[in-house]
Amino acid sequence: MDMDERKIRILQAIINDYINTAEPVGSRTIAKKYNLGISSATIRNEMADLEEMGYLEHLHTSSGRKPSDKGYRLYVDKLMQLPQLTLEEENLIKGQLLNAALFEVDKIVKQATQLLSELTKLTCIVKTPSESFSYIKSIQLLNVDSSNVLAVIITDTGFIKNTIIRVKKPVSTDMLVKLSNILNARLNNLTVEEINLSVINSLKNDLANHEEIFDAIIPALYESLSTPQSSEVYLEGTTNIFNYPEYNDIEKAREFLYLLNNKESVRGLLANTNNISISIGGENDIKGAKDLSIVSGVYSIGGRPLGAIGVIGPTRIPYSKVVSVLTKIVKEINDSLNQAYLDDR
Fold first, then answer.
1. Which of 177, 300, 176, 161 is nearest to 222 (CA)?
2. What is the structure's pLDDT at 63?
3. Which residues pair with 235 in a beta bridge?
4. Which residues does residue 164 pair with via DSSP β-bridges, in sequence order?
5. Which residues, in sequence order, are CB contacts of 92 under 8 Å at separation 6+?
6. What are the structural domain ranges in the chain?
7. Long-range pairs of 191-195 with CB within 8 A, sequence gap ≥ 24
8. Distance between CA atoms of 82 and 85, rounded to whole angstroms?
9. Helix intervals (H) in the chain
10. Which helix (H) or strand (E) holds 58?
């Protein structure tokens, strides 16, 4: 059976209507509201064909139909038209993320998640950068007293780790500046995985006579930058789901909240590609997500993916609006991070 122009227009009308109303759509509704120039009887026949083709589902409690996962997939891949953001929305995104850019990466993405929730009226999720992917930006050694030196390790993603190093004899401020310069020359712009035996041996030679510094700094780097749990998942607007009548069913609402409570599952739902990713209903292989859609994107610094941000909701979420807002927010996050990244190089 062919998917001709008429069927496509009817399917598009049904999806738009169902996204807006959550009510199963009948042929008479489409004939009245969407001026397609065809009779209600013709629309009914075409709807029966679309159901047979797997693009619509018939609800037994109603004569109307709703889109299937396959229908939504065709819609987002081929039919969806992205709206322009309003000037107010554009200014809100730019202004709030520009202010957040004065802080660390996780502050920027948390601010972005709040914005995304506010503008889409959906539950938003964000995965912050894992420190194991962070580059060492700066290491500073500072005197605390005659027996202790403070090492401050800062990464390009804004992570800061302080370590106290016990020393057998006082180290002058001039010497600490010199040692800090050595550490930065050897370790700047490396991730923890790039600190290999060759780097360690070179550093050991450079820090001869300062074994306490060497013996403390390498474990401190590994300990602070190798923590697998350091990639956090944050949620914003969890209760937004109750704006959707589908979740008046308390059992369904409980399942949704239970899924959100499982951070590992939520992490698995987020995109891992650079483009905006849309995952619909049964395409999600995570337990509890078969009736949900996730729209997410990856943010990056210097072309290096850091984390992901997205929204989660029922399969009838307003895809076009969500994609427009998310595309703009990811672009602004990337612009903010990359400007800060270039300023520091």
1. 161
2. 73
3. 125
4. 150
5. 115, 119
6. 5-79, 87-129+231-344, 132-229
7. 191/132, 191/133, 191/134, 191/135, 191/136, 191/225, 192/131, 192/132, 192/221, 192/222, 192/225, 192/226, 193/132, 195/221, 195/222
8. 9
9. 5-21, 27-33, 40-52, 69-74, 87-100, 105-120, 173-187, 197-206, 211-225, 250-261, 263-269, 319-344
10. strand 56-58
If residue 293 lies in a helix (H) or strand (E), which one and from where to where? strand 292-301
Query: 197 near 243, Cβ under 8 Å?
Result: no
- Assign 3-class secondary structure to 238-279: HHHHHHCHHHHCHHHHHHHHHHHHCHHHHHHHCCCCCCCEEE
Mean pLDDT throughout 283-310? Answer: 88
- What are the distances in angstroms from CA 328 to CA 26, 94, 325? 35, 9, 5
β-pair partners for 310:
125, 296
The CATH number that domain 132-229 falls under is 3.30.390.60
pLDDT of 341 = 56
Query: Which CATH class name applies to 5-79?
Result: mainly alpha
- Output the furthest CA–CA distance in the chain (Å, rounded): 93
Domain 87-129+231-344 has CATH 2.20.28.160: no
Residue 89's alpha-carbon distances to 83, 126, 233, 266, 330, in angstroms, are 12, 20, 25, 27, 14
Q: Which amino acid is at 62?
A: S
Among 44, 301, 11, CA closest to 155: 301
Task: Tell me if 246 sits within 8 A of 24, measured CB to CB.
Answer: no
Interval 79-101: pLDDT, tens: 999 999 999 999 989 888 766 55
pTM: 0.76
42-58: pLDDT as tens digits: 999 999 999 999 999 98
Question: What b/e readout covers 124-152, taking b as 16+ CB neighbours within 10 angstroms?
Answer: bbbbbbbbebbbbbbbebeeeeeeebebe
pLDDT digits (tens, 9 = 90+) for 117-175: 999 999 999 987 765 567 788 888 898 888 888 988 887 766 777 888 888 888 888 98
